[in-house]
Design a protein that fits this description.
The chain is of the alpha/beta class. It is built from ten helices and nine strands. Strand 2, helix 1 and strand 3 form a beta-alpha-beta unit.
Length: about 250
């Protein structure tokens, strides 16, 4: 696994760490990083030993958003090229969003634009108390379009109306209030807080976690005509699974 803009590894527990590795650019997203994030997501998805993924970053910042050189290059492309450039970002976000394994974002420093988008597709976001966030696209004459579906889903329309429009920077307390951040920790306790979340996940059945993620996506997006009947069938399927039956037996007969 050789990458230029990210690092990927996992430990004996099956906890993968996917780390952004452009600290000199505050981990700004360029074409190479987006492609490599998709490739890394495919690897962890296809690796049965991986049970959870931590998305983190080298350096002082989590992610400064889109790389300015990349954005300048997009502006110079023709219409087809611009749409293709936007699709690179949306493909990366979709791939992370659709991981069947739990994704924890470990956030320090600044997270702007696309960095907020990556937070929005994580299942759990643990942020340093002094982290700062912003959707600054309108300051550049742009809009947070490709990250929009995920961020609005995460924080709701009301919070999006302010954060999308005025580009203001906000802290972890505000991010906690509207659900962008799941929990906060002092900077020197950030890793410990992430490990607490990992431990909770590892204590659960991996197949059940995967199907729970699928259930959330299906119900939240209104993809079935009868969500009650769908949920009844989903629970019956789980009851019939060997994973559930073995765990129930262990619980009843410790």
């Amino acid at each position: 696994m050789s990458f230029e803009t990210i690092d990927l590894s996992w430990d004996e527990r099956g906890v993968a760490t996917l780390r952004l590795a452009r600290p000199e650019k505050h981990n700004a997203l360029n074409e190479a990083m987006m492609h490599e994030l998709v490739e890394a997501a495919d690897i962890v998805e296809a690796t049965p030993a991986v049970r959870a993924v931590i998305l983190s970053a080298h350096g002082k910042s989590f992610c400064a958003g889109g790389d300015l050189n990349w954005m300048q290059a997009q502006a110079a492309r023709d219409r087809h090229g611009k749409i293709e450039g936007a699709r690179q970002l949306s493909t990366m976000l979709s791939r992370l969003d659709c991981l069947s394994k739990p994704l924890i974002a470990r956030v320090q420093g600044n997270a702007f634009g696309g960095g907020v988008g990556m937070m929005a597709v994580a299942d759990i976001v643990v942020a340093a108390e002094n982290a700062r966030f912003a959707l600054t696209e309108t300051r550049l004459g742009l809009i947070p379009a490709t990250i929009g579906p995920y961020v609005i889903r995460r924080i709701g329309e009301g919070a999006a109306r302010r954060t999308f429009l005025n580009g203001h920077r906000f802290g972890t307390d505000e991010a906690l209030r509207f659900g962008l951040v799941s929990r906060s920790a002092a900077p020197d306790a950030l890793d410990a807080a992430v490990e607490e979340e990992v431990a909770l996940l590892l204590d659960c059945a991996p197949g059940a976690i995967s199907e729970a993620k699928s259930l959330i996506r299906t119900l939240a997006r209104g993809e079935v005509e009868d969500p009650v009947a769908f949920s009844e069938k989903a629970l019956a399927d789980r009851w019939e699974s060997e994973e559930a039956q073995s765990r129930i037996r262990r619980f009843l007969n410790p």
